[in-house]
Amino acid sequence: MTGLEKIIEKIAEDSAEECKTIISEAKAQADRIIADARNEARKKANDITGEAKAQADKKLAVSKSGAESITRNRYLSVKNAVVNDIISAAYEEIEKMSDKDYFDLLYKLCIKNVETGECIMRLNAKDLGRLPADFEDRINGAVFEKAAVQVSKKPYDIENGFVLIYDDFEINCTLRTVFDSEMDKLKDILSRKLFS
User: Fold this and answer.
1) What is the pLDDT of residue 195?
2) Over 38-107, what HEC string results?
3) Phi first, then psi: what are they for 189, rounded to 5°?
4) What percent of the chain shows pLDDT beyond 90?
5) pTM of this prediction?
6) Burial class (CB in 10 A: 0-12, 13-18, 19+), 137
7) CB-based contacts of 187: which residues, under 8 Å, 6+ apart?
8) What is the DSSP string of 97-140?
9) What is the model's pLDDT at position 125?
């Protein structure tokens, strides 16, 4: 299991009750939308019964097709909204993590993303103020065979997470960047878990 999958699993555990409520509300909303769309389709079918049989059959087929399309589109829209809400809630949960859990997450992200060679890790002012004393030693103890990471004491203008700066390139490990880079995968995993 990769570090990101562990993050996703941790986020899912922390947000379970909120997710259940969101999913329940979304399913109830989807059921109402489906019921409304079906009622709308039935009304349209009843409104055209006075017309000739051939014309009524044709319009009924069009109405059914349209209602199914509207229902399907509304259901997909609600489903996407639920998934996006869960991802936003998960991101917010990361921001509420204890210092220990937060820096354990940054540790795992660094181990996963560090490249060969020496680099400087840049953190924001808030994270520098709460940085565990052994953080740099922990990272270097894990990556000593391929890399050396020095945590800069100078704050970097980022929201959270970190940036690894090498001579020729940078690796952006801010949490928003990590979420954005894995967004399709996150949405796919959540959709399968919630709607399958």
Assistant:
1) 78
2) HHHHHHHHHHCCCCCHHHHHHHHHHHHHHHHHHHHHHHHHHHHHHHHHHHHHHHHHHHCCCHHHHHHHHH
3) -60, -50
4) 39
5) 0.58
6) exposed
7) 83, 87
8) S-HHHHHHHHHHHHHHHPPSEEEEEE--HHHHHT--TTHHHHHH
9) 97
